[in-house]
Design a protein that fits this description.
- The protein is of the alpha/beta class and 447 residues long.
- The chain has a single domain, classed as Ribonuclease Inhibitor (Leucine-rich repeat, LRR (right-handed beta-alpha superhelix), Alpha-Beta Horseshoe).
- 13% of the residues lie in helices and 23% in strands.
- Strands 1-2-3-5-7-9-11-13-15-17-18-20-22-24 form a 14-stranded mixed beta sheet, with helices on one face.
- Helix 5 runs parallel beside helix 6.
- The longest helix has 16 residues.
- It is elongated.
- The N and C termini lie far apart (86 Å).
- The relative contact order is 0.05.
- InterPro entries: Leu-rich_rpt (IPR001611), LRR_dom_sf (IPR032675), StomDev_PlantInt_Reg (IPR052941).
- This is Leucine-rich repeat-containing N-terminal plant-type domain-containing protein.
- Pfam families: LRR_1, LRR_8.
Length: 447
């Protein structure tokens, strides 16, 4: 139990080093006069101290800088704002903080170039290194990254950092998040990524990576998010990916994967909630795997070259589905009535396929989804007049959509508590046609 009233103070070397960092990031603010006292007791938001020697009855202990966050994010996170002129910034100064665990920069390096390599001098106790929206940050991940053995979180997004991922990356055995999106990285994803057994997030989106996904990726058993979108990855999907039993978000969209179809082994990844594969020429039909993926809430399958029908199982099993994109494919046949069972669906895109027949949705369903319902670009698809009128109220761009003229296509009728469809009959103006149509209705209802 602490009985002393003494409070530990930050040592003068670290106090002065904080002032130097603040001045180099924004010299327009008088940091020393605004925060003249001990920075551990009255410092700016983003400067965080922690005990490195715990207090006792006779000793107040010692405190050191453990977190430094720069760049105003919001009123909730009002970190010290960075200025336009950061030419005096020198990352070497961070070697003055031997207990620094987190280093965060948001929108700080926007004009004067700063090298990423200079941050390798930060002591190995660093657990989080975060750069978000710093377009003047350049350089590459060097082998020295492997010296940061305590690193749990590495985030570099929206920078000009380039080059390949070095072999030393596989030495970061404590890494839980690697978000390297929106940079200029190139090369392949190395096999030694499999050494990162604690990894939960791997986001390499919006770079220039290429080649195949290594089979070793299936060894990342704790991975929750895998985002490789907007790169140049090619080939197929390795079957070893079924080993990603904890994966919830999978985004492989807009790469160069081809001719592999939608893998059946996805059904073994039972925790999947988000599947985005759009923009790859996969081909094939939509597989019947949805009964084993009932937790999925978003599916993006746009522009895959898909053929065949839309399976009704999408509506039967995916009660949590909020987003379904099947546009710009080669899908044929009728739109399944079961899709209307998706009560939380907020966006449905079926544009630019070869779907036909009557759109089996009620006006209520159409109104609920509103402008996020896309069915244009299917010339043989028609809408009931009431649905057509509901649609025109929310979207006047109907393209080639037309009102159905029964019995030129399916006509949905109530039979008991379910809906069924009358068979398709060619349009005719003859009396024989009208008689045969009435006879067909009679036989349908009573036999």
């Amino acid at each position: 139990m602490l009985i002393t009233n003494s409070q530990p103070i930050l040592n003068p070397v670290e106090q002065e080093s904080v002032y130097r960092v603040l001045d180099s990031l924004n010299s327009d603010i008088p940091w020393r006069s605004l925060f003249p006292d001990d920075l551990c007791s009255s410092g700016p938001h983003g400067v965080v101290c922690g005990y490195t020697t715990m207090p006792t009855d006779s000793d107040p202990g010692t405190v050191n800088i453990v977190e430094l966050s720069f760049g105003f994010v919001s009123d909730h996170n009002p970190n010290p704002p960075c200025g336009v002129n950061t030419s005096g910034f020198d990352p070497v100064i961070f070697s003055s903080f031997p207990y620094l665990q987190k280093l965060f920069f948001y929108n700080c390096f926007t004009q004067q170039p700063v090298s990423l390599q200079a941050f390798s001098l930060v002591e190995s106790v660093l657990e989080e290194l975060v750069f978000i929206d710093n377009p003047s940050l350049f350089g590459s991940l060097t082998e020295s990254i492997g010296n940061m053995t305590s690193l749990r979180r590495l985030v570099i997004t929206g920078t000009n950092v380039s080059g390949e991922i070095p072999d030393g990356f596989g030495l970061l055995e404590n890494l839980e998040e690697a978000t390297l999106s929106g940079n200029k990285f190139i090369g392949t994803l190395p096999e030694n990524v499999a050494k990162l057994k604690k990894l939960k997030i791997l986001d390499l989106s919006r770079n220039g990576f290429e080649g195949n996904i290594p089979a070793a990726i299936g060894e990342l058993e704790n991975l929750i998010k895998l985002d490789l979108s907007l790169n140049n990855f090619s080939g197929g999907f390795p079957a070893s990916m079924k080993g990603l039993k904890c994966l919830e978000l999978l985004d492989l969209s807009y790469n160069r994967f081809s001719n592999s179809g939608i893998p059946l082994f996805f059904s073994e990844m039972s925790k999947l909630k988000v599947i985005h594969l759009s923009g790859n020429e996969l081909g094939g039909a939509i597989p019947e795997i949805w009964g084993k993926l009932r937790g999925v809430n978003a599916i993006g399958l746009s522009g895959l070259g898909l053929v065949g029908n839309i399976p009704s199982s999408l509506g039967l099993f995916l009660s949590n589905l909020t987003y379904l994109a099947l546009d710009n494919n080669k899908l044929t046949g009728r739109v399944p009535l079961e899709l209307e069972r998706l009560k939380v669906l907020t966006e449905l895109n079926l544009k630019n396929n070869s779907l036909s027949g009557r759109l089996p949705f009620s006006g209520k369903f159409v109104s609920r989804i509103g402008r996020k319902l896309g069915v244009q670009g299917n010339p043989e698809l028609c809408l009931d007049r009431g649905v057509f009128e509901s649609f025109t109220k929310i979207n006047r761009d109907l393209g080639q959509l037309k009102v159905c003229n029964w019995p030129s296509s399916f006509n949905w009728v109530e039979i008991g508590n379910s809906k069924s469809a009358l068979p398709h009959v060619s349009r005719s103006s003859s009396i024989c046609y009208k008689v045969s149509s009435l006879l067909a209705m009679f036989l349908w209802f009573f036999f």
